[in-house]
Amino acid sequence: MARALQQDGHPDLRQAAFYTAAQAAITDLAERTAHIDTMAHFFDAVARLPQDQMDVIVLTHLCGIHPTAVPGIVGLSPAMTHSLDHHARGALSDLYLRNHTWE
Fold it and tell me: Whole-model pTM?
């Protein structure tokens, strides 16, 4: 995180939108551009999560690390990690949907 670019006091994860597996599979340029835009907004929402929630979401859902391995990586109990994941997914729904209902 110390080396991550920052935007408004949060890590700038938008570059990751260019490197998703789904992105690599899209051959149509217009579809690919639309997907990058959508993913960039999603990664902005992820970056706005509290640090511990962001860590769990990135490791579990973006890096594909098995949920049973995440507690050992972040140094928290399995119950706490599960709770962080649950709250982060709820917050992402709120952040992402609230910011995209007007577009």
Answer: 0.68
